[in-house]
């Protein structure tokens, strides 16, 4: 009789954590490139599915500093379930500081929810779940403003809206009790990860214009989020790299914190209306504060960060171009 354990399927028909080998085997048997591993506890198994390193598995990764932002992509080998190849280069590469981060990186999960897409009275909410060891409260909030009359309503309530998630990221950065410590923000939204790993570098290179020459519709919120990242102490005073990283995780595969963030986002969408915010003004105020206090990274639109994502989770060039031109994200 097999010993009890938790079977983590990182790559298979249905990735997730299973409590019996027969259930896990059904997901990997005959599946080309299947990646799986057995663990003694659920937390380690969930971390493995999520792509996190654990004491029971070995990883070999390195980071690449892209022209604007750092992208660290992982590909799992079909021959060794615990070995990962070096990252794939997606952008022009420059040298990185290579400075090791001190201490264990803290982790937080976020998600967004919308109801009544495209209709009058559409509502949207966010959920934030901090992992153990972080002295901060989880969040379940409605997005600010009366969405049915707000000119950002359609973007807020889009089923694949990144605006909800950008607001969630901003709230995480506002509530983080220790901005001096590294923090990894996890999201299962492909579009959100694409904003930070692919769109922002392109928009900055074009002076915040889309590929068709139009303005980036939610530039104010993006710049505010970047200003919050820039206000954090950099691991290297001579570098533009912040202590923030983003990680793409899989949705609905048994990651408890991610599922809880989804639940809190659904609840948040139906909370009372809150006052809208002037993110353009808040971004300027934050940049002025950074300059005045002479700490953090001077320019918000030049701050760099890491993004961890499997190659298969990135949008194609065609998808990026279409979404960018239509501002449909």
Descriptive overview:
This protein is an alpha/beta fold. It has two domains: 1-57, Ribonuclease HI, Chain A; 106-326, Nucleotidyltransferase, domain 5, CATH 3.30.420.10. It is built from nine helices and twelve strands. The chain is globular. The N and C termini lie far apart (50 Å). This is Ribonuclease H.
In short:
The protein folds into two domains: 57 residues, 3-Layer(aba) Sandwich (Ribonuclease HI, Chain A); 221 residues, Nucleotidyltransferase, domain 5. 31% of the residues lie in helices and 20% in strands. The chain has nine helices and twelve strands.
Rg, Cα atoms, Å:
20 Å
Strand fraction? 15-25%
Uncertain parts: 53-102
Structural class, by secondary structure, is alpha/beta
Under CATH at level 1, the class of the largest domain stands as Alpha Beta
Secondary-structure element order, N to C: EEHEHEEEEEEHHEHHEHHEH
The CATH homologous superfamily name of the largest domain equals Ribonuclease H-like superfamily/Ribonuclease H
Give the overall form: globular
Portion of residues in helices?
25-40%
Span between N and C termini? 50 Å
- Total number of strands: 12
CATH topology of the largest domain: Nucleotidyltransferase, domain 5
Tally of helical runs: 9
**How are the strands of the biggest sheet laid out side by side?**
6-4-5-12-11-10-7-8-9
> How many distinct domains?
2
For the record, the CATH architecture of the largest domain stands as: 2-Layer Sandwich
> Kindly state the mean pLDDT as a whole number?
73
Function: Endonuclease that specifically degrades the RNA of RNA-DNA hybrids.
Catalytic activity: Endonucleolytic cleavage to 5'-phosphomonoester
Protein name: Ribonuclease H
Organism: Microbotryum silenes-dioicae
């Amino acid at each position: 009789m097999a010993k009890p354990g938790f079977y983590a399927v990182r790559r298979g028909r249905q990735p997730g954590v299973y409590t019996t080998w027969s259930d896990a085997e059904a997901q990997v048997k005959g599946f080309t490139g299947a990646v799986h591993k057995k663990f003694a506890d659920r937390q380690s198994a969930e971390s493995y599915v999520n792509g996190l390193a654990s004491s029971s598995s070995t990883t070999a990764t390195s980071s690449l500093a892209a022209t604007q932002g750092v992208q660290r992509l992982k590909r799992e080998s079909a021959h060794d379930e615990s070995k990962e190849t070096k990252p794939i280069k997606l952008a022009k590469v420059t040298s990185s500081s290579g400075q090791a981060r001190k201490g264990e990186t803290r982790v937080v999960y976020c998600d967004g929810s919308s109801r009544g897409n495209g209709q009058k009275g559409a509502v949207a909410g966010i959920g934030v779940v901090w992992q153990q060891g972080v002295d901060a409260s989880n969040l379940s909030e409605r997005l600010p403003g009366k969405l049915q009359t707000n000119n950002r309503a359609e973007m807020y309530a889009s089923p694949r809206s990144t605006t909800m998630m950008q607001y969630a990221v901003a709230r995480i950065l506002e509530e983080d009790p220790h901005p001096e410590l590294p923090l990894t923000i996890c999201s299962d939204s492909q579009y959100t990860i694409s904003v930070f790993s692919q769109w922002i570098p392109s928009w900055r290179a074009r002076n915040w214009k889309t590929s068709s020459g139009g303005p980036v519709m939610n530039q104010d919120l993006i710049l505010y989020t970047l200003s919050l990242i820039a206000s954090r102490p950099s691991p290297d005073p001579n570098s533009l790299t912040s202590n923030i990283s983003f990680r793409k995780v899989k949705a609905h595969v048994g990651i408890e914190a991610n599922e809880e963030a989804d639940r809190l986002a659904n609840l948040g969408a139906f909370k009372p209306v809150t006052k809208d915010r002037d993110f353009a003004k808040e971004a300027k105020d934050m940049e002025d504060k950074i300059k005045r206090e002479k700490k953090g990274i001077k320019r918000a639109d030049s701050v760099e960060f890491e993004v961890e994502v499997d190659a298969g989770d990135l949008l194609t060039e065609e998808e990026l171009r279409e979404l960018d031109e239509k501002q449909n994200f």
